[in-house]
């Protein structure tokens, strides 16, 4: 017996913050990175909080790939603050950190979990829709995905205006992360009708709107579609979990400090070829996606190849590196670290 449920409430659109007014938020902790605070991106939220009469404090020390030390530091701040709500605003790092801090606050103090609100400012991780958080060990630099239903945000706010300033390179990296989430979810043995529908729609949106978002950052429609794709893929893989693509990407990215979405993209065509060769189920799923995108050919093998070629072409159109060497990793470095990556 299976169950599919979506406990996170999703509010979309340019006025999405207004929905916070229906919640009894009095003492809010805002967790973000320094750019979100200094750029004024947070001001749209602060105006709504002022209208609500809510008190708030900002913890803006979030860094990329949040580590255990950062979580402990954030935990000490939140314990002193005793908020009734925690709001994460930023990319996956800020949201993962906030989820982990909020979770540990509940675990260590015995207090009720604060209302957890996620506001993504990139369209990639889908962290606002998942029960996962990726935290790096401060000593070993190994990335550990932790999972618990209590990590799921209560509310997600998808405001497309918050992603218009995302640089093209980050749009490309995060967009390919969305695609990898959707593809891995679709091919997972745990996939079912509901996750399939979410993953299929996410794949369609990536191929129809990612290039527009990359070349025309102010195109609100494309930005909104990529925001939705990220969210849909997040719900899909939270149900099915992910696969070897992410397993390798977390290890390789952690060692060589390659942006996560970029690392996923470099690996994706190779993982597709590997899985398709070793599993008829995977082969059939990949070719189904290829045909959905109207990439079908006379033979199933060519249909699979067309899917890989389409991914490769998408990367090239966004000036993305397509090899680890192009990401700045030499073969000697890779072979040196291979045993630890495999482990």
Largest sheet: 6 strands, parallel
Pattern of helices and strands: EEHHEHEHEEEEHHHHHHHH
Strand order of the largest sheet: 1-8-5-4-2-3
How far from one another are the termini? Answer: 34 Å
Fraction in beta strands: 5-15%
Sum up the overall morphology in one term: globular
Description:
By secondary structure, this protein is of the alpha/beta class. The chain has twelve helices and eight strands. A six-stranded parallel sheet has the order 1-8-5-4-2-3. A two-stranded antiparallel sheet has the order 6-7. Helix 8 packs antiparallel against helix 9. The protein is globular and about 65 Å long. 48% of the residues are buried.
Task: Please sum up the structure shown.
By secondary structure, this protein is of the alpha/beta class. The protein has helices at residues 34-38, 43-52, 68-81, 92-109, 168-187, 193-215, 220-240, 244-256, 260-278, 280-292, 300-317, 331-342, and strands at 9-12, 27-32, 55-59, 85-90, 115-120, 132-136, 143-147, 155-158.
């Amino acid at each position: 017996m299976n169950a599919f449920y979506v406990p996170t409430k999703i509010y979309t659109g340019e006025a999405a913050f207004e929905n916070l007014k229906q919640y009894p938020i009095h003492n809010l902790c805002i967790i973000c990175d320094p750019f979100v605070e200094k750029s004024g991106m947070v001001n749209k939220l602060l105006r709504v909080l002022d209208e609500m009469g809510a008190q708030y404090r900002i913890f803006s020390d979030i860094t990329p790939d949040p580590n255990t030390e950062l979580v402990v530091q954030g935990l000490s701040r939140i314990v002193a603050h005793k908020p009734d709500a925690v709001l994460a605003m930023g990319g996956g790092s800020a949201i993962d950190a906030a989820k982990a801090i909020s979770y540990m606050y509940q675990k260590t103090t015995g207090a009720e979990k604060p209302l957890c609100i996620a506001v993504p400012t990139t369209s990639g991780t889908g962290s606002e829709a998942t029960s996962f958080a990726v935290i790096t060990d401060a000593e070993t630099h190994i990335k550990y995905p932790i999972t618990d239903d209590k990590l799921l945000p209560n509310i997600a706010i998808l405001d497309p205006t918050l992603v218009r300033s995302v640089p093209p390179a980050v749009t490309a990296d995060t967009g390919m992360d969305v695609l990898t989430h959707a593809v891995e979810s679709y091919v997972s043995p745990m996939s079912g009708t509901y996750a399939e529908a979410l993953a299929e729609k996410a794949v369609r949106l990536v191929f129809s709107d990612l290039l527009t978002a990359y070349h025309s950052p102010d195109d609100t429609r494309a930005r909104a579609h990529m925001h939705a794709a990220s969210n849909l893929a997040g719900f899909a893989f939270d149900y099915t979990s992910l696969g070897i693509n992410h397993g390798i990407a977390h290890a390789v990215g952690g060692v060589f400090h390659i942006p996560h979405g970029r690392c996923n993209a470099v690996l994706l065509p190779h993982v597709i070829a590997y899985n398709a060769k070793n599993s008829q189920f995977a082969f059939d799923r990949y070719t189904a996606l290829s045909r959905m995108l109207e990439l079908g050919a006379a033979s199933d093998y060519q249909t699979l190849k067309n899917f890989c070629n389409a991914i490769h072409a998408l990367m090239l159109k966004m000036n993305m590196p397509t090899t680890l060497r192009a990401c700045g990793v030499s073969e000697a470095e890779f072979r040196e670290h291979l045993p630890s990556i495999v482990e």
